[in-house]
Amino acid sequence: MSRLSTALAVCLFPLSLSVLAAPATYVIDPLHSFPNFAINHLGMTTIHGRFDRMTGTITLDQAAKTGSLEAKIASASVNSGDAKRADGTRSRDEHLRSADFFNSAEFPDVVFKSTKFNFKGDDVESVDGTLTMLGVTKPVKLAVTSFKCAPHPFNKKPMCGADVQTSIKRTDWGMKFGVPAISDEVKLSISIEAYPQ
After folding, report:
1. Is position 6 within any domain?
2. Quick check: is 157 in a domain?
3. Which of 22, 15, 12 is nearest to 149 (CA)?
4. pTM for the full model?
5. Phi then psi dihedrals of residue 131, to 5 deg
6. What is the pLDDT of residues 26-81, one digit of tens each?
7. Position 7 in a domain
8. Sign of the torsion formed by the C-alpha atoms of 194, 195, 196 and 197
């Protein structure tokens, strides 16, 4: 290695570390990010569903071990596999959008805002925050089951991906219809892909 190459390497190495350590903001990709839910129905089976529209941002500073997350879910995009019925009777998705459940006309968004990222070593282990639904805000902790930032395998652009899980009691937010035949406990799992802002 020439003296010039050595000098350049010495000058650029700290710069490259500072770039890697700098806080980065990522935008959630709505085409590859889905909040999913599961709820027991009549004590017999589990109904699964998802929301088709979610937006938001993630800020991550791995050097300082801090971060923030804000995600907004369109409640009217609920999709439980029963969108419209040929006989004209109300479908399950229509019922879920009604005042019995998400009341999407009055409360179009379900919002999660983080208050703290919890790290274990270099990995994000959980995220503390608040969930606002039906006009009620309550604390929620998301367990992070998978988290990774790396270049996209095809276009090589930076990206982050994560899977998070939690359970909530829907009555805490005032969603009481059908309890206990339709379970109070709802299991949530959210898959997220995000790209630099």
Report:
1. no
2. yes
3. 22
4. 0.85
5. -115, 125
6. 999 999 999 999 999 999 999 999 999 999 999 999 899 999 999 999 999 999 99
7. no
8. negative
The answer to whether the CB of 172 falls within 8 A of the CB of 95 is no
Q: What is the DSSP string of the chain?
A: --HHHHHHHHHHHHHHHHHHHS-EEEEE-TTS-EEEEEEEETTTEEEEEEES-EEEEEEEETTTTEEEEEEEEEGGGEESS----TT-PPPHHHHHHSTTTT-TTT--EEEEEEEEEEEETTEEEEEEEEEEETTEEEEEEEEEEEEEEEE-TTT--EEEEEEEEEEEEGGGGT--TTTTTB-SEEEEEEEEEEEE-
Give φ, ψ of 122 to 5 degrees: -95, 0
Does residue 126 belong to any structural domain of this protein?
yes
CA dist 164 → 7, 61, 87, 174, 188 (Å): 45, 19, 38, 24, 8
Residue 26: HSE in the Cβ half-sphere, 13 Å Cα cutoff: 26
In this predicted structure, what is the pLDDT of residue 103? Answer: 98
**Which CATH number belongs to the domain containing residue 99 in this structure?**
2.40.128.110
Identify the CA nearest to 26 among candidates 152, 138, 121.
152
Q: How many domains does the chain have?
A: 1
> Could you tell me how many residues make up the chain?
197
Q: In which domain, by residue range, is 55 found?
A: 22-196
